[in-house]
Write a structure and sequence with these properties.
The protein is of the alpha/beta class. Helix content is 20%, strand content 36%. The protein has 7 helices and 28 strands. It has helices at 13-24, 61-75, 137-146, 162-174, 192-202, 252-255, 294-310; strands spanning 2-9, 29-32, 48-50, 59-60, 78-80, 84-89, 92-97, 101-112, 116-118, 127-128, 134-136, 154-158, 177-183, 205-208, 211-218, 221-229, 232-237, 240-243, 247-249, 281-283, 320-323, 330-334, 337-338, 348-352, 356-364, 367-376, 382-384, 397-401. The strands form 7 sheets. Strands 1, 2, 5, 6, 7, 8 and 20 form a 7-stranded mixed beta sheet that branches. The protein has a 5-stranded parallel beta sheet with strand order 11-18-12-13-14. It has a 5-stranded mixed beta sheet with strand order 23-21-28-25-26, with no helix packed on it. Bound molecules: flavin-adenine dinucleotide. Flavin-adenine dinucleotide (FAD) binds at residues 9-15, 32-35, 40-42, 45, 49-50, 84-85, 113-115, 137-138, 141, 163, 166, 250, 253, 285-286, 291-295, 297. Flavin-adenine dinucleotide is lined by residues 9-15, 32-35, 40-42, 45, 49-50, 84-85, 113-115, 137-138, 141, 163, 166, 250, 253, 285-286, 291-295, 297.
Length: 402
């Protein structure tokens, strides 16, 4: 079996940034990607909104992805495209590629950056017909950006997070009329100013609090979307539906690989140094918890690479889990473990599923060490500062909400 020093799996912004940084730090890095072209999600996003905060110039998604690939190659990273990770057993990875079929590699250090994916229609329990014109934003962008195709003429977008607005921009770019954006929750998942601006500028009506959504039509041809809104039944004509957002980490294969699991994030537990409870296995990017902006995943990739580099000769510490038994509304928490041997730049970041107001206590071994007021919208990340005390192996750390 082939043995390599450092394997990075996933060549999106997090994996490419990590690979480049590791190569610059002197490691021999092999980066594996299941698609035939590296670059991750931004490759499909044919709109601006990338690059400014990490590469210091405004770029569209494909140009941003190409620049990250160029930097990785220039740093000496070996990129293996068309390589899909099938399973992980300790440091032993099983891959599949068109040329080699299934084969195994053993790596001394592994950094996983598999990203996240949108929840498709079947998992969203929306009533109505089946049709090939029901897509996720990612699939719509693949049609439009990579294949230059227009899958429908008039669309309804379901889901109001930032990616739903990206779907509207993609529709506009492709000459598709975005008739409406529907949100089932009673609140929007982006700042309402952005939604209202979009409504005014692009003429797409935004409805929050939609109930009893159903995709209407016959024999796979969509005629419209029916829903209840403010006590009335509404029908919006369209021939395509785009489901946006509700990202879940691309973690199914890791769950089957007998690794430790954090059900709050549906992913591996991770420390502030991007280490997992498994020595030598690190993670970064959207795999940790669902979607954030690309520049944040890029920054996580670099931080994870540095942590892997400095941790090579350090024995793994017993990390302390951050318990959250009373945070029922929690969408994700990252990091979810504290490594007592690493510096503590902040305690942790949290996101909630619904608007959340109250007081959050930080308890160390049952004693209150910090009290924070929370007033968070579902699109806001709450960052808790470090409470200023050392923690050691065996301590108990809990966040309690009231
Ligand atoms: C529609 C849309 C619009 C967006 N617009 C913006 C924007 O304007 N600005 C912005 O900053 N961000 C935007 N984002 C978010 C941004 O693209 C992501 O946050 C970022 O790409 C995440 O980086 P990542 O490296 O964690 O994951 P990804 O970019 O998803 O990369 C993960 C990589 O891992 C590979 N992979 C997965 N599983 C395997 C496996 N088993 N074996 C091998 N390889 C595997 C995938 O093929 C992929 O290439 C948008 C996202 C979407 C969906």
């Amino acid at each position: 079996m082939k043995r390599i020093p450092v394997a990075v799996v996933g060549a999106g912004p997090a994996g490419l940034a990590a690979s480049t940084e590791l190569a610059r730090l002197g490691h021999e890095v092999h980066c594996y990607e299941r698609e035939s072209v590296a670059g991750g999600m931004p490759r499909h996003c044919g709109h601006q909104g990338f690059g400014l905060l990490d590469l210091h110039r405004p770029l569209d998604g494909p140009a941003y992805a190409a620049e990250l690939v160029r930097r990785a190659r220039q740093a000496g990273v070996t990129l293996h495209t068309d390589h899909t990770l099938l399973s992980l057993d300790g440091k032993r990875m099983r891959f599949c590629s068109p040329e080699q079929g299934a084969f195994e590699i053993e790596a001394d250090r592994i950094l996983l950056a598999l990203g996240a994916r949108e929840t498709p229609r079947p998992a969203r329990l929306i009533d109505g017909i089946r049709s090939p014109a029901i897509l996720t934003t990612g699939a719509l962008q693949r049609f439009v950006t990579l294949q230059g195709r227009r899958p429908f003429r008039r669309a309804v977008v379901i889901g109001s997070d930032i990616v739903g607005f990206s779907a509207i921009m993609t529709c506009r770019h492709a000459g598709i009329e975005a008739a409406a954006l529907l949100e089932e929750a009673p609140f929007l998942r982006v700042p309402s100013l952005l939604a209202r601006g979009e409504e005014m500028l692009l003429g797409t009506h935004v409805y929050a609090g939609c109930d009893a959504l159903s995709i209407e039509g016959e024999r796979g041809r969509i005629e419209g979307v029916c829903f209840h809104w403010q006590g009335e039944e509404r029908f919006i004509e369209c021939d395509g539906v785009v489901f946006s957002g509700e990202f879940t980490p691309e973690s199914a294969l890791l769950r089957q690989s007998r690794l430790s699991w954090d059900p709050r994030n549906d992913s591996l537990p991770v420390t502030q140094g991007f280490g997992t409870p498994h020595p030598g296995i690190y993670t970064a990017g959207n795999l940790l918890r669902g979607a954030l902006a690309a520049y944040k995943c890029h920054a996580e990739g670099i931080a994870a690479a540095r942590s892997l580099h400095t941790g090579i000769n350090r024995p793994p510490a017993e990390a302390i889990p951050i318990a959250t038994p009373t945070l029922e509304n929690l969408d994700w928490i990252s990091p979810s473990l504290v490594d007592p041997t690493l510096p503590h730049p902040y305690l942790t970041r949290l996101r909630f599923r619904r608007p959340t107001r109250g007081t959050l206590l930080t308890l160390l071994n049952g004693r209150e060490v910090m009290r924070s007021r929370i007033n968070a919208r579902p699109w806001q990340t709450v960052t808790l500062p470090w409470f200023g005390q050392e923690v050691k192996e065996g301590d108990r750390l809990e966040l309690r909400f009231f």
